[in-house]
Amino acid sequence: MTEAVQTFGGDQDRRSWASAMARGLAHKCPECGRGKLFSGYVRTKAACDVCGLDLSGHRADDAPPYVTIIIVGHVMIPLALAVKQLFDPPITLQFAIWLPLIILASWALLPASKGALIGLQWANRMHGFAGPDADPDADV
């Protein structure tokens, strides 16, 4: 017996996850790359102003903060430890440097990681991006 593998669309309907994530990183619509993805800092628009893509079905949830914490933690903490080992600056100087850098990096990466995740969901036809004929309750 051969089991059929479920696929979505044909070759012409393939979605590039790399370009969708790059568009999301740039805070643009994952489908057209021209419309804005966010109406605020990380508030997703209901639909793209240019192509009309419904953006309300995404489920980014808690993943963008986790990605942001992992990236900032794996970059800033080793840098702070290296500076401590090499130069041994006073603790007040360390706080004056690293605390604003960590806050700014987190502030910049959170919307970018959310946009990239929404782009990845769109490219893989997950959740609200599966198409008009898809079951909205199905976990694709």
**N-to-C span:** 24 Å
Shape: elongated
Low-confidence stretches: 4-9
Largest sheet: none
Please give the number of β-strands: 0
Helix share, percent: 40-55%
Q: Report the sheet-strand fraction.
A: under 5%
Helix-and-strand structural type? mainly alpha
- Using only C-alpha atoms, the radius of gyration works out to 20 Å
Count of DSSP H/I helices: 3
What integer is the average pLDDT?
88
Give the topology string: H per helix, E per strand: HHH
Keywords:
3 helices; 140 residues; elongated; mainly alpha
Structure report:
This protein is mainly alpha-helical and 140 residues long. It is 48% helix and 0% strand. The protein is built from three helices and no strands. Helix 1 packs across helix 3 and helix 2 (63-87) runs antiparallel to helix 3.
